[in-house]
Amino acid sequence: MITLRNVEKFYEHGTTKTWVLRRIDLEVKEGEFLSIMGPSGAGKSTLLHILGMHDAGWTGEYHLFDQPVHKLKGKERLALSKKTIGFVFQSYHLLDDMTVYENLEIPLSYRDIPRAERQSIVCDLLDRFQIVGKKDLYPNQLSGGQQQLVAVARAVVASPKLILADEPTGNLHSSQGDEIMQLFARLNREGTTIIQVTHSDRNASYGGRTIQLSDGWMAK
What is the DSSP annotation of the chain? Predict the structure, then answer.
């Protein structure tokens, strides 16, 4: 599903290079639940943003579903990302001026999906995530755990094959965090590939494999 070969990233300061990632080789099979761990500044979030095609300033090879991402133009990368990837961030990234229902519908509005079908998909998702009673509320009317639940629902509304999660429970209490991780585990059992960045051994234990980064290098 994912193949990285010799992926590297650095920042230039005059004649000096500051390396963020060095010689990353990685294979991720469809249906895996992978955790990326390491100390702050190790390059974890940078690697996740490269996988999500948010970052184009890197070298090496990246294949996603046999598509050579490193050769694609910006618009082609964006189209591939929207088609295949859902994102979950530590700070939720919900749109404050939209209701829960509207936050869930907006990813579908970017696709050629008829309004009636969008409504059906969102209603099914509200029921699946047990948040029907929250559909008319705004993000500031929800607890942190509820906001992250909505963020996960939004990430899966378009049935992505891959979910990328960056410290998804970082702002939550432990019980709320466990609820989100159990939800990820369920989605993974249902066939969604998940890659998460986490500092938590507990969160990593929900996945099937963990890789460690240190100073931009992947531990062998």
Answer: -EEEEEEEEEEEETTEEEEEEEEEEEEE-TT-EEEEE-STTSSHHHHHHHHTTS----EEEEEETTEEGGG--HHHHHHHHHHHEEEEETT----TTS-HHHHHHHHHHTTT--HHHHHHHHHHHHHHTT-GGGTT--GGGS-HHHHHHHHHHHHHTT--SEEEEESTTTTS-HHHHHHHHHHHHHHHHTT-EEEEE-S-HHHHTTSSEEEEEETTEEP-
Measured in degrees and rounded to the nearest 5, phi and psi for residue 140 equal -70, -5
Report the side by side order of strands in the sheet with 217-218: 85-89, 162-166, 193-197, 33-37, 209-214, 217-218
Domain limits of the chain? Answer: 2-218
pLDDT digits (tens, 9 = 90+) for 120-155: 999 999 998 889 999 999 999 999 899 989 999 999
User: In which residue ranges of the chain is pLDDT below 70?
Assistant: 220
Residues 6+ apart with CB under 8 A from 202: 178, 181
User: Which structure tokens are listed for 189?
Assistant: 């059992």
**172 near 145, Cβ under 8 Å?**
yes
* CATH class of domain segment(s) 2-218: alpha beta
Cα 134 from Cα 141, distance rounded (Å): 9
